């Protein structure tokens, strides 16, 4: 993997999240880690950084309270968003439908852990965003302007936690 400048990226965030899917990973080599497939998220910018650095590049992702990955997201300062070539679609589907509480789903999906920059990623990923968690907030029912979204997406009222991460580094396969 080679570090690239975020401003050199040419990508479609709608495809990256909604069509291709990403693997959200958090944890460390000592205390363990977990990963889940996500299709909901955003890339953008918000808030000013230190003087002269401009607006902070960010990624936003969402995790339901029932997901095992959530405990790692809450505990860790860093997380990664990992994109894979289309040949790993089956592995991403596996990661999204099995729990790391019950099995080594990373190994069972045929992926190889790589610990770098104080967090976790995967040898097979072709694009990796290393993020520093800067904000976390549970979505709240009374904040939905369109209440039909609540009934459609949260019949159990198990609202996601939204995590905003500052994108610290981007890696790409050479």
Automatic annotation (TrEMBL):
Gene3D superfamilies registered for this protein in UniProt: Electron Transport, Fmn-binding Protein, Chain A
The UniProt entry, under InterPro entries, shows:
Flavin_Rdtase-like_dom, Flavoredoxin, Split_barrel_FMN-bd
| PANTHER family assigned to the protein according to its UniProt record, in alphabetical order | FLAVOREDOXIN-RELATED-RELATED, HYPOTHETICAL CYTOSOLIC PROTEIN
Domain of life the protein comes from: Bacteria
Q: Which residues form the Flavin reductase like domain?
A: 61-171
Q: Could you cite one Gene Ontology molecular function of this protein?
A: FMN binding
Name assigned to this protein = Flavin reductase
Per the record, the similarity remark reads: Belongs to the flavoredoxin family.
């Amino acid at each position: 993997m080679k570090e690239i400048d975020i401003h050199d990226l040419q990508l479609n965030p709608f495809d990256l999240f909604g069509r291709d899917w990403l693997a959200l990973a958090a944890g460390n080599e000592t205390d363990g880690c977990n990963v889940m497939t996500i299709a909901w998220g955003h890339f953008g910018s918000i808030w000013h950084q230190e003087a002269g650095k401009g607006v902070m590049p960010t990624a936003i992702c969402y995790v339901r309270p029932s997901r095992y990955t959530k405990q790692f997201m809450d505990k860790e300062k860093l997380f990664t968003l990992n994109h894979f070539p289309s040949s790993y679609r089956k592995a991403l589907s596996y990661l999204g439908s099995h729990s790391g509480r019950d099995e080594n789903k990373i190994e069972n999906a045929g992926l190889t852990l790589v610990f770098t920059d104080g967090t976790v990623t995967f040898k097979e990923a072709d694009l990796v965003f290393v993020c520093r968690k800067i904000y976390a907030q549970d979505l709240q029912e009374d904040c939905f302007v369109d209440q039909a979204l609540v009934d459609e997406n949260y019949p159990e009222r198990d609202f996601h936690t939204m995590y905003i991460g500052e994108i610290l580094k981007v890696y790409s396969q050479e």
